[in-house]
Specification:
The complex is a heterodimer of chains A (198) and B (474).
Chain A (H helix, E strand, L loop, with lengths): L2 H20 L2 E8 L2 E3 L5 E7 L1 E10 L5 E11 L2 E12 L4 E12 L2 E8 L1 H4 L2 E7 L6 E5 L2 E5 L4 E2 L9 E8 L2 H5 L7 E10 L3
Parallel strand pairs in A: 2-6
Antiparallel strand pairs in A: 1-3, 4-5, 5-6, 7-8, 7-14, 8-13, 9-12, 9-14, 10-11, 10-13
Chain B lengths: L1 H6 L2 E7 L4 H5 L1 H4 L17 E4 L2 E4 L1 E2 L14 H8 L13 H9 L11 E2 L6 H9 L1 E3 L10 H10 L18 H8 L7 E5 L12 H4 L4 E3 L3 H7 L8 E5 L23 H14 L3 H4 L2 E7 L16 E2 L5 E2 L8 E4 L7 E3 L6 H11 L7 H8 L42 H16 L1 H7 L2 H12 L13 H8 L1
Parallel strand pairs in B: 1-9, 1-10, 4-5, 6-14, 7-8, 7-9
Antiparallel strand pairs in B: 2-3, 6-13, 10-13, 11-12
Helix pairs in contact in B: 4-5, 10-11, 13-14, 15-16
Classes of the chains: A mainly beta (198), B alpha/beta (474).
Chain lengths: 198, 474
């Protein structure tokens, strides 16, 4: 490359660096943990270019989860960039629903499986599980299993991590077997959880 | 029916961008403004998506601010959003949050942007027209894909493409050429009022129309409605907002409601357009004003689209329609506060034009196919014989917290924006006189974009110069 072109390229890079350094931007805004119980602290970290301000709002979600909402607003040269993160605040003995869409059949058994978000729930352990559905559900998680009848709960999974892979199974009713459109679209369990580290 | 069609003298079409029915009008049923609308209802937890074990219900948006980002709404992403159930094959509408998470590469908040909906107070003009006239709660975008194929369907009844592209093709059944052919004794009079660069500039084959006298600036609309003699006035009017993706150098703000825009700009545009359309009571008596959206833009809607397919010109076979969009028919010929549950898509307007201007003949073969598949004409919503005057729209202040100006340095950020810019450069190069007469602001825009490629020490550098980066990389 001729020397004059090298100089031109260098100038272009310098100009681009100058330009990009003047724009307000948020390269990351992390909030942890994403779920807290009563007296836990929330840690906020960000890398941003510009003057940061934090807006805080606390409200209930439509499904009655208390949300702590942090909005990072970065301003520079009359422009702003913003990003919002929400933290769920729970009671220490709270229960959550874990729900997966059904995705497989084995004979007359329908299966729903997936990851319960590890980023959210890795800091919590299971106390007990129950079935909020009007049907029997077999649950497998962390190498353990339980059969949940409507209205009863089980502590077979006690001490396992709330996050990670779960498998739910249930037998189809006669009516569901005869009409595939009636196959349940999702299976859910209710889990009482507590923080792994008190 | 013939009687009602005879009463119609003016059809006005206003198409906004990228919002779903539940997002804009789902509040009608929940707030009991029009309870029979198929919208959102309490408990809102019945309108949810699942993602990684958690439930993400719809939620009311608290403030009309500019969003952080556009939402995913490409053909593949919409396929993910519709989410066919692996066991039943039914469309579940259950993949909006998952598509959002994949697109942003972040775990979504409990209140995920794709699930937000507006209450009446944040969309006062839209809500006013709905409660005052006829809400269509079963109107789907014809294709589960982006802007351009759906606009092709809206304005020609067919699409050569299944995804967005640059300079676009449109057949001889485009609405303008069709209207020119339609009148038996005399041509149907039509006109376009554009607020900024017209979307039809993207079609090279339509430039003869775009540069002609039938394309007028938006600020002439009220004057023409008020004073133009009825015998000269257009029978079909297309009103175009200022598109977010179009080149901007004028004080006109984008108001097409395309995310991440706040919707306040579009609400103000809708209010002013309704005022203009209804300012002449005699003409208003015989006017049908259709407000609709090109596609859902990545926002959740709870109704699965019908399985009415379409094979695009590029060979791609769609198996079903796209998600529901907000649609309102404002006219003294509809009953106030009524709801039309009939199945509509954008070609329902073309069916209506054919009923009106070529009775007994379909608009085209492809529109006929959709009619035979169950898509109705909007004429079924016209069922009121008793004239009533246009009520004034809400006069309340519409506020939008805003940061001024997107910068010319940023360059086009989307495929459609790239298409607009390509069209602008094409007409400036090949039709410089006509282009600068029709869009004088493009002269200034071209100078500014050239300057952006030669930044000086005086460049403030408020945003990343993607034009320069592109040129350096190129």
């Amino acid at each position: 490359m001729p020397f004059s072109n090298c100089i031109r390229l260098l100038c272009t890079i310098l100009i681009l660096l100058t330009i990009s350094s003047c724009k307000p931007s948020i390269s990351y805004f992390r909030v942890s943990p994403l779920v807290i119980t009563g007296d836990q602290k929330v840690s906020l970290e960000w890398d941003a270019k510009g003057t940061p301000a934090m807006e805080f709002n606390e409200h209930m979600s439509v499904d009655s989860v208390q949300l702590l909402e942090y909005t990072l607003i970065v301003t520079k040269a009359g422009k702003e960039a913003r990003r919002t993160m929400q933290v769920q605040k729970m009671r220490s003995d709270a229960s959550i629903e874990i729900t997966f869409a059904t995705n497989k059949m084995e004979g007359d058994t329908v299966i729903a499986s997936g990851e319960n978000n590890n980023n959210q729930w890795a800091g919590f352990q299971i106390v007990s599980v129950s079935s909020p559905m009007q049907r029997e559900v077999a649950v497998s998680h962390s190498g353990r299993s339980a059969t949940l009848n409507p209205g009863s709960s089980s502590s077979s999974l006690s001490g396992t991590n709330a996050g990670g892979e779960w498998i739910f199974k249930t037998k189809l009713t006669e009516s569901e077997k005869s009409d595939r459109t009636k196959i349940p679209q999702e299976l859910k369990i209710r889990a009482v959880i507590k923080p792994s580290t008190p | 029916m013939e009687n009602m069609l005879d009463k119609v003298k003016t059809v006005v079409l206003l198409m906004f961008e990228n919002r779903s029915f539940d997002h804009m009008l789902g509040h009608l049923s929940r707030q009991k403004i029009i309870p029979e609308v198929n919208g959102l209802k309490d408990p809102l937890t019945n309108f949810s998506n699942l993602y990684k074990g958690g439930s993400f219900p719809v939620y009311p948006i608290r403030e009309d601010v500019e969003m952080n980002t556009d939402l995913p709404h490409s053909k593949a992403e919409i396929n993910d959003q519709l989410k066919k159930h692996p066991l039943t094959g039914n469309i579940t509408m259950g993949g909006f949050v998952e598509a959002y998470a994949h697109s942003t590469r972040r775990d979504p908040n409990k209140e995920c942007e794709t699930m937000g909906f507006f209450e009446s107070s944040l969309v006062p003009a839209t809500s006013f027209l709905s409660r005052t006239f006829c809400t269509c709660d079963n109107w789907f975008c014809p294709l589960p894909t982006g802007t351009q194929p759906n606009r092709n369907m809206a304005f020609s009844g067919e699409s050569a493409i299944s995804e967005n592209g640059l300079l676009l093709k449109i057949g001889r059944n485009n609405i303008f050429d069709w209207l020119n052919r339609a009148g038996k004794e005399k041509k149907v009079r039509w006109r376009v009022y554009h607020s900024g660069m017209s979307f039809f500039t993207l079609y090279p084959s339509l430039l003869n129309h775009v540069f002609g006298s039938k394309f007028r600036r938006y600020d002439q609309l009220a004057r023409d409605i008020m004073y133009e003699r009825e015998d000269d006035a257009p029978e079909v009017i297309v009103v175009e907002p200022a598109y977010k993706d179009a080149p901007h150098i004028t004080p006109v703000r984008a108001n097409d409601n395309h995310p991440p825009l706040a919707v306040g700009w579009g609400e103000e545009f809708l209010r002013r357009t309704y005022e203009a359309i209804s300012c002449n009571p005699k003409k208003w008596e015989r006017t049908v004003f259709v407000v609709y959206y090109d596609e859902h833009g990545g926002f959740y809607d709870h109704v699965a689209p019908p399985k009415i397919g379409y094979k695009a010109g590029d060979g791609f076979q769609f198996e079903n329609m796209g998600p529901r969009i907000p649609a309102i028919i404002s006219s003294p010929l509809v009953k106030s506060g009524s709801v039309c549950h009939e199945l509509f898509d954008h070609t329902s307007v073309l069916q209506f034009l054919a009923e009106k201007f070529t009775p007994g003949q379909d608009y085209s073969e492809s529109v006929k196919e959709r009619r035979l598949a169950g898509v109705k004409s909007i004429s079924v919503a016209l069922n009121n014989n008793i004239p009533w005057p246009a009520p004034p729209p809400p006069a309340d202040k519409i506020s939008v917290p805003v940061v001024l100006g997107s910068n010319i340095l940023e360059g086009p950020q989307t495929e459609v924006a790239q298409a607009f810019e390509t069209a602008a450069r094409y007409i400036l190069k090949d039709y410089p006189d006509k282009a600068t007469r029709k869009y004088p602001e493009l002269v200034h825009w071209e100078v500014s974009t050239e300057n952006a490629l030669n930044p000086t020490l005086y460049t403030s550098g408020e945003v990343k110069n993607t034009r320069l980066i592109k040129q350096s990389n190129g």
